[in-house]
Amino acid sequence: MDSNKTVNPDLKNERQKCTFNPLELTYLVYEGRDRNKQRKEIENFFFSDPDLQDKVPLDFLSHKEKYEETIRKACVIHKKLLEYRSIAGHIDSETEKLLQSVIAAVLKDGNPFGLNTVMFVPALLGQGTPEQQSKWLKRAIKYEIIGTELGHGTFIRGLETTAHYDPNTQEFILNSPTLSSYKWWMPSMGHTANYAVVMAQLYTQGVRRGIHLFIVQIRDEETHEPMPGIKVGEIGTKVGMHAINNGYLGFENVRIPRNRMLMKNAQLPDGSYVKAPSDKLTYGAMMFVRVIMLQGAAAQLAQASTIAIRYSVVRRQSEMKPGEPEPQILDYRTQQYKLFPNLATSLAIKQSASFVWKMYTDNFVIKFDSSGNSIFYERAKAVCTSTAAQGVETCRLSCGGHGYMTCSNFSCIYGVATASCTYEGENTVLLLQTARYLMKAWQQAVSGVNLTPTVAYLKEALSERKSSQQWENSIPHIVKAFQRVSAGKVRMGLKSLQKRINGGFAPEVAWNSTSIELAECAEAHARTFLVETFIKRIAEINCSVALKTVLVQLSELFAIYTLLRNKGDFLAFSNMTPQDISGLQVWMENLLEALRPNAVGIVDGFDFHDRVLSSALGAYDGRVYERLFEEASKSPLNKETVNQSFHKYLKPFLKSSL
Amino acid sequence: MDSNKTVNPDLKNERQKCTFNPLELTYLVYEGRDRNKQRKEIENFFFSDPDLQDKVPLDFLSHKEKYEETIRKACVIHKKLLEYRSIAGHIDSETEKLLQSVIAAVLKDGNPFGLNTVMFVPALLGQGTPEQQSKWLKRAIKYEIIGTELGHGTFIRGLETTAHYDPNTQEFILNSPTLSSYKWWMPSMGHTANYAVVMAQLYTQGVRRGIHLFIVQIRDEETHEPMPGIKVGEIGTKVGMHAINNGYLGFENVRIPRNRMLMKNAQLPDGSYVKAPSDKLTYGAMMFVRVIMLQGAAAQLAQASTIAIRYSVVRRQSEMKPGEPEPQILDYRTQQYKLFPNLATSLAIKQSASFVWKMYTDNFVIKFDSSGNSIFYERAKAVCTSTAAQGVETCRLSCGGHGYMTCSNFSCIYGVATASCTYEGENTVLLLQTARYLMKAWQQAVSGVNLTPTVAYLKEALSERKSSQQWENSIPHIVKAFQRVSAGKVRMGLKSLQKRINGGFAPEVAWNSTSIELAECAEAHARTFLVETFIKRIAEINCSVALKTVLVQLSELFAIYTLLRNKGDFLAFSNMTPQDISGLQVWMENLLEALRPNAVGIVDGFDFHDRVLSSALGAYDGRVYERLFEEASKSPLNKETVNQSFHKYLKPFLKSSL
Asked: Measured between beta carbons, which residues in chain A are less than 8 angstroms from residue B636?
């Protein structure tokens, strides 16, 4: 880390106060001393390259300039990546994650080649025949072509793109029959990708055969001009992820050879059709991305917490006691309340993400529920991404005006975090899928079926009485209360649903009418899952007492904070009474106070490289005011004392009434 | 309004379903038929000017180009404004509000001359002597000079800028002793304003005399070059309000004549000093802005609701019943739950804003508490602005990916809305000021003093017992419950505070340690104020039964939604029991269902001009998909089929591994 020489004295002082060794936390976070060393080497390999520095912060550029600059950097970093791979030889999955996180830091507003890696290649792997793989896979992996993949929204059956097979020419003819059937949003599609895997409704011999995947060439490899019949362009500017170059795509009698249908699981010898053995495999490609998203949510919140906490010890404001100097704003209890729960939440999400990751890597395939969806993912994704996004905004707001500046980097982090609430499963849709799973699980429990561990508490709850026990301010008791709340809400949700069905509503109408309650069941279940997982994993960690103390404080804070934010549910469904709230409130306040001296130590332990944080407020050295001026000095407007608009517009206007 | 010919059929259908006449709501919102006519005329006068149209959406431009284009438009519109004023003659305060809202729509990312009107002129009016006013006021009002005003943060006493009086030359010498004493954030200061009212610590005869205001020339009127010793520039890019050109300002021995100190309330004949009769008047200038902010919060949320609701009847997605067509997404109960409470909240905030506005205009001065702050403002501002900002984000998220696009205009609205949480009183600071007021009010109630109407319920609560009455699903009962909750939280907050003081903590430390609870007291009080005011004012409105029914539904929805979101407090502090929740939940769901057919009618009644909404998703005609394509076609990237970065970077990279 940087020398302490130029470090802000307040930040230096915080580091001296810390009761544990942040490096121990770093090793824990990055899975050991060796992995951490490897991470530092990789960061150094990429971050030290002057070609990967922004000369002017992207925020000052036009939309077009941002795109061009990002393509430049993307080419440089992917070239380096190929170089790294060829030197390193075998790359394991942990190293792969490290590489991806470095790329994400350099291309912080989105990686224009990202979809090639996380969607195009997996689609070929999962759905291509050996012949198709040998033709396309190597080219994609070596970046001879840039592929993307076209999502389908939540209603696959309604997909309007058609692929008619013409047995005479042995070609498929792709069409977008309406404006609303144009693909919209495909990453990198605007001006970057030259190939895409496209979902379309297949028709052969005049019969609709269902959804299939096709490799479609979008642009000429030499000229990059769109292929005949391809209508392509970018969709425009967005809240964040400006460099992703999302595009639209329409087909007007686009003809592709027969061997471009991905046919690992389907055959089409002469227009006759053999269905794939399992439709579910079509979903395989997106699963890896989804698992990675949870880890992203944890990282985004941890980064925002780091920036806000470092800034809050440097920033001094107002007075607490008359006549005394302005306190560090982190000494305000309300500021601690904005930041420390988010710090704790970032770790809670990280633990759940690791759990889901383990389910993924252990089984290699995701466990699907009856509708073909990944239950572990859905359960965690909606609550993790929305909590992370809101947390990032809370961190930004806690930094006042300076948080509002883009050089704080909060807005960029938020732009990525809030996008996760929508893509790869819109959060409300996922909550309702989880709710459907929970309703079934409850009914199974009632009929005596044993449930998988993460919902086993539903069955236990059946035989419990709410008020059988006095409230206890202990973590095991609180975890139990989370389970009771979740079970209670599931029971109530099902009751409301059945009441409507018994009242004569069609099941679908009843479901829709009850869906507010049902979504809340899923949220309560996810919170229970997060609290349980966090508490359990922290307890299992093998580390020094000093560090363990802090980690336990964080896990307790997460549990109590989450409880108090939902105290209505606990009063309604657990044995907590209004008289128990004060005690929990004081416990939470004591945890905030206990964490205060170690706050900087904890975020130092996360050890985000300054380049990853990319923030004038959150750098390791805490030179906030100097960096704000440095960033301002990069503004092209500040390169001249007088802007041309004065002579063109302002002066004539000011003089016009004289 | 536009012809119905090209209107989206789903939207057309919604309009036929509406049970009331939206025009009646429009007249109500805009205070009568005549005012509404005037509004339309003003909108037409400005919006029809082709010079005020954006050729390219600002989002595609660079930061510098955005600035230049905004200065151009600001000059055009302010010239038109002077023209309008000279034709119209006397302009009353309602007309002034209409004019300001049209300017805000054209300069939707901030008005670079706004501070001249809302800060600089009022500062001169409030603090200038007759001589100073005759010299500066007319010039500022006619835009011969552009002034701004320098805020001071929440800690005025800590202000570091110094003004030393030199009796020899009869000048003040201004200095910024440190980097952190540089003014930062002043609107329009970067490259636009040429004058500023500056706060500084006055020193005469070696003695510190407290804070005073000075008119400082920042830039030469002919060349616009910074004056000697003035260090000025812009601070850089921000989350929103990109055109405001916030700047930094430092002084290095800047000499200004003696008559530039605003001296209405102070005298300085020869270096000897007579203090102003009241420091509080110094705050006067900012009060008008603060009151206007509440109305802004209501408008932002109403606009976001309009966009999201219109989009939600055009957008169809998934399936509710197998085999049926995709439903309009507004038919999903969860979507109604995201949007209708925000619609209701926008009206609730509007009613409270009108109340505060009336307090302001009736008394001409704001009522201050003992620390010189406006209690009515503080009470409402924190909760109104943060609720509005969160609501705008909820509306955006409810529109999925398309909400994420800047052409939806949500991000621009959010950028302005979220800024309000920080400026003119940071929300947490204001909540704690309100809490201090509430603690005093409670203590007064205990000692038998009568309280002002808005807190009179605290006294009533003293003599009540929580469980004296069964819960009733009626609005008067719910309003009462809000008061009980607020009183209960105030009582608990004070108890926690006193417990800490009795335990030996210094009062300031005890206050800080209890501040989470205290801020929550202020929030509960503000919610009570909002609910009470909304219910009361809707009841008073004189209108058709058809419209009244809908308005009552909205006020009930606001009350019940707010209650359920805070049900823990109601279980703890009111006579509500867990068994009462289901009934309230069903009541709320029934209100959502009842409002569904009128949702479009209500937002049509708000009658925002398409130019004000500035949204591809929310226009009156509902041509969402056509407009999305139109907006995409404006992207400079889409003007060429192949971007230069392909030849410069991408092609060499793709070919490099061959």
From this structure: 62-64
